[in-house]
Amino acid sequence: MPRDNFNKPVVEELARRVAFTCSNPDCRNQTVGPKTGPEGFVTTGEAAHITAAAPGGPRYDTALTAAERSAFNNGIWLCRNCAALIDRDVEGYPVDKLVQWKKTAETRALLGINKPPTIDAAASVPGRLNVLSARDALSRAGTAMTAIARSLEELDPRFRVTIAHDGSVPSFSIEPVDGPVNVSINLRDNAKTRQQMQRFYEYGERVTLDGKDITFHGTPLLDGLNGETRHVSIANPLNCHAVVKLSVASKKKNELEFLDQGSATLSSGNKGFSCDAQLFGGCLALSVTSDGQRFHVTATPTFERWVGRGIKVLPYFDQLRKIRDAARLGLQVDIVVEVEGQRLAAGHGKLPMTSLGYGLLDFAEEMRVILHQSPIDILMPKELDITADDIDRVHQLAGLRHISVGSTMTATVEPQTEHEVESLQNSLAVSRPTAMRLTQLLDIHAFGGLLSNKQIAVEISEVVMTTRRKNIKVGQSVPVKFRATRSSRVSYIVS
């Protein structure tokens, strides 16, 4: 009896839609490649029938017509080994399983199209580089991402899929459409994973795991993503509107200063709840867990909004400084969590010292002091490149503003005119307070070296100077000792 074989266009369509890889998710071997030599190719793949092409064959379906048996919908692209395997073990590979393989393989291929080539792959492809406008690139990326989301949803309509794109890395958000869906998870057993999952079960805290440490079962959608993700985040958000309010102890005794509030993602576990909120316009990530009586709070600055902004006008700088000081000084912090206008929980305590990465905040604060009276400003770059020498130098310069009465320092002066010599000698003769002005190279290489060639003038007013007057000559360096008085003030000018 004749077989209802696929024609050449159908065979090519089956192979191309899975990028010439075997559709068996446990195989996925490449099935096409070059012959040895300058030309030609070989293939180890086959367009296999899902239901047999002739009576007596594996999974033969009498309800299909000859045209349906030889159509694209009845085919699946496999390597030769897997093609033989599915025909020899019919019970192990029923029709619905092979149909699922096909859908999953096509989705993998679609995901692969949207991934940028590696450096090696890009270097191996000759030809001209097509340059897209930003608008065209965003439009094409958006269309491709939407197609990926719809393809993933077709694998299991019980889920809604949304995709965000951060640079070259897409992230998938997968949520049940109508209530919970039972899905089993296999985790690689290690102490870090156990600790994270315990916090998830107890408080609903979001868990982010390495993609290779987690495997899903129970839905073809997640089966298709196993091994394809860099990281997997698991959360149990509650469908309600939550708000987190933050206050800190003020300078006035027994009073709190309200700083900010923000919408929060609220999750629950078997012991309590957790929530994450972005405050200060996204400059502070606040994480709260509570069992209703005790609170655990972490507050972490996020400096992305500072990139490209002048260091003298950084957004929410003062608020972040107050949070830093509260952590350092052990000041009381007050947290209120409200759900749909009703207070869910409230608590107060102290922020752990480790909860703030305030090294950059300290550096930025001292730089603002140095640049405050200067006509220039510098933009915060994405890559700061701050060295230990930069930190020490800025700290020493900014620290001059804290000089105390009676403190002394020695500096080298070099008068350039007879008038400067006379003025200096007169100040020394009567020991009256005068202004000291030191000018030198700023020599700070942070911020892309923007300040490495700038001059800084440090002027300290109302200081008393002492040195040997006969050594003061035009163009000659002489060490001078300065003593601070009650009226001494420090100012900086960078030019």
Question: Any overview of this molecule?
Answer:
With 495 residues, the protein is α+β, with helices and mostly antiparallel strands. The protein folds into four domains: 8-114, no CATH class; 145-234, no CATH class; 242-357, no CATH class; 363-494, no CATH class. The protein is built from 13 helices and 21 strands. A seven-stranded antiparallel beta sheet has the order 15-14-13-12-11-16-17. Strands 18-21-20-19 form a four-stranded antiparallel beta sheet. Helix 4 packs antiparallel against helix 6 (134-155) and helix 10 crosses helix 11 (388-399). The model is unreliable at 116-138 (pLDDT under 50).
Question: What keywords describe this structure?
Answer:
4 domains; four-stranded antiparallel sheet; alpha+beta; 495 residues; seven-stranded antiparallel sheet
Report how far apart the termini are: 93 Å
Biggest sheet: strands side by side, in what order? Answer: 15-14-13-12-11-16-17
Counted beta strands: 21
Largest sheet: 7 strands, antiparallel
Task: Describe the structure concisely.
The chain has about 500 residues and is an alpha+beta fold. It is built from 13 helices and 21 strands. The protein has a seven-stranded antiparallel β-sheet with strand order 15-14-13-12-11-16-17.
Please render the helix and strand layout as text.
Layout: H1 8-16, E1 32-34, E2 41-43, E3 45-49, H2 66-69, E4 75-79, H3 80-88, H4 95-114, H5 119-123, H6 134-155, E5 159-166, E6 169-176, E7 184-187, H7 191-203, E8 207-210, E9 214-217, H8 220-225, E10 231-234, E11 242-249, E12 256-268, E13 273-279, E14 284-290, E15 295-301, H9 317-329, E16 333-339, E17 342-349, H10 359-371, H11 388-399, E18 408-413, H12 418-430, E19 434-441, H13 446-449, E20 455-466, E21 478-494
Antiparallel strand pairs: 1-2, 3-4, 5-6, 7-9, 8-10, 11-12, 11-16, 12-13, 13-14, 14-15, 16-17, 18-21, 19-20, 20-21
Helix pairs in contact: 4-6, 10-11
